[in-house]
Amino acid sequence: MSAEDRGFDRHMLEALVCPVTKAQLRYDLAAQELISRPAHLAFPIRNGIPVMLVDEAREIE
What we know:
This protein is mainly β. It has strands at 26-28, 33-36, 41-46, 49-50, 58-59. It has a single domain (10-59), classed as N-terminal domain of TfIIb (Single Sheet).
């Protein structure tokens, strides 16, 4: 299933950066998250919309 089928436009990744570090994000299709490795955060994608709020992010190793 492509990102578009799930409702998330991967072209949006070019415009999005981590709100904490301003680093590039990595799209995790299986988890439906945008990953910021420098900030150790995973931002959820809900209904095709990235939720770029630190309070909504999940800490990752």
